[in-house]
Structure prediction request, 289 residues.
Amino acid sequence: MLRTYKEAARLMPKLHQHTARLTVWFQQSEMGMEKQEILSRATTFATVHPHNGRLVFFTPQHVVAPWRYPDYHAYAMDWLQHVDEKHCTYCLDVRAPDDTGDMTRHHFDKVHYHDTRDVATLQMHPEAEARLKGDLARQNMVLKPVQMRHELQLEEHESCYIAGYEVEEEEDASEDESPAADKEDTREQFPFYVTGAFTLRTERQAYVKTSEVLNFGMCGAPVLDHQQRCCGLVEGIVPSIGDPKAPPPELQSPLYRRVEGNAGVVEADELYHLMIFPPQPAYQRELQQ
Prediction:
């Protein structure tokens, strides 16, 4: 059942002030595209860089660069393989969830990819960041940077919150925050949050059991402790048993059965490391006046 934006917002506490919507638009003029279309969508959030005071936003790499993840997007790789950063525009959308749904949109000017993890950072030029802050103040909107809890990992059974923006469900809708299929994606994103608890940690991944299985669009959402400090980022959702994406019963390992339906999380120490030691930007554009 679809909800209005205001109805959805009333279900969400102040946690939404830490999150915003990320939309990646693309246009392949050389392929005959006459206008930009939505490539992918997710949740994003920001922290303040401890050295320069600038805002740094985080989101999964498979959202900002889906062509780098053929296993995620196998159904679309016949055309997605021809897309890259030069075709894309990365947009931050902030809404006033307790009001009329008015929105302010700003563009990111720089994107960095983690070398080995499914996470990316996005930033604006200082002048563009100042415009963002000015627009938020004028329109009485709030986007609060999170404090990173990078020196203390989630503990066993520790409770947490996940806040973000889910994509509304529609019949025959394209898959989660993945690339658009053969029709324009016009679905809305609504504020959404769940409670959760830390399940386990493997060599490369942490898992959080959520009160509801996360829906499409929640990748990129921050995992927050009771002090609203960021413990990590939602990288993806482990398919539940019975889901078409789940492995067949004979291939379901004990680990899978323990974390099915969980959120897979990139923890804050890795986010912090990417922010402090970024590689060369994969995308960078000149300041737009």
In short: The chain has one domain: 5-284. The helical segments are 5-10, 61-64, 77-80, 126-138, 254-259, 268-276.
